[in-house]
Amino acid sequence: RSEIITESTQLKVSDLKLSDAGIYTCEYDSHTVSISLHVFKLTISLDGHFLTNEAPELILMQNSSHPLPDLNIIFFNSKNNTVRPKVIPNKARQEYVLKLQQLEAKDSGTWMCHVHSDSPLINQNISFDVKVLGFQNPDFERQYAAVDSTVTLSWHLNFQKIKWKEYFTGQLNWKQQETAAAHELLDFNITEREGQHETKKSSHFRFEIPESKPKSTIAVKLHKIHLNHSGQYQCQLVYNRRSVTSKIELVVMKVSANPVGPLRRGAKTTLICQVSHPLPSNAHLRWERVNGTQTDIMMSKQHEAKVEVNVSAAGLWNCHLIEDNDRKISLNYAVEEAPVWISYVVIGASIGGSVLVFGLACLCIISGISWQRRRQRAKTMARARQYLLENKTCQCQQ
């Protein structure tokens, strides 16, 4: 593993090992020159291949012919930002265990370990590669959609950006509530040779896999969604029996009125704004009338999934879903005033209906009286016939 470069009188040692540390002496005529070689070895857990939220552990070892110095160790991540690890040295200073915080997908790249000592003077940089496989999405996000709309839920993987050549798999599950059973919608596998392949697993849940989605993306498209489409959509990535998960919570919103239809003069209707399940503490629903006043505002209480407002006049109303003072989704409902002739028709129908009911009542009374009289006459005739039958026999005198 060594060679002498005669032109410059240099000794070249390749593939250094810790055991190569020591004192190297060059003798030329009556001249002697000695050099002390200090060797470092840095190893990283999992061979530098991590999933998001995993915390790397590194081991720095040193060897020298002189007493081993106390080292000061800092790291520079792929963005050249300083990272100070938790350092656990052993008593002999031969080995330092270095623990980093949990990684994010953006941490992928070349890192630098800087080793410093004042005596002897050491300023050594050791570079190493870190690859973090995962989602560019956050671990958890919330997405809002209106009833009957079309929504696409997407998870963006970063394996192409980091040139990940390893084989990994994953699946997409859905459950309507946190405590409900999960239903597998699709699974996928990704290899360097075959690329990305997805397979639908659910037949009763209606969705499609978009054809024109970007590369390195797992996505599902839901058409004409309803309240039952809400819930948690969980995409799980599995590599070497380890996994990482990203969740999207779909919240579905709906507005309606009771009763439905144009508002007659003097009548009232109730506007209803609801979401698929109770909102978190930092979110609420709010009805407000367009160009209205503060009195035309109705807000939901904390953790409520519905808010109602009573309306007695025509106008346009908006229901907003607000999270942390940010409007996530808004739906409007137009309350229309019924034409005057409809009111007259309703009044006429009411009067006509009353007259009809009164007439039917009178007819029923007259029919009842007539039936009662016929029944009475029938009873009288029956008694008369009975009387005649009993008295028709003649009594003859002997």
From TrEMBL:
Keywords: Membrane, Transmembrane, Transmembrane helix. PROSITE patterns: IG_LIKE (PS50835). The keyword Cell membrane does not apply. The keyword Thylakoid does not apply. The chain crosses the membrane at residues 341-371. Pfam families: CD4-extracel, Tcell_CD4_C. Signal peptide: none annotated. It comes from the Eukaryota. InterPro entries: CD4-extracel (IPR015274), Ig-like_dom (IPR007110), Ig-like_dom_sf (IPR036179), Ig-like_fold (IPR013783), Tcell_CD4_Cterm (IPR021963). Residues 266-330 form the Ig-like domain. This is T-cell surface glycoprotein CD4.
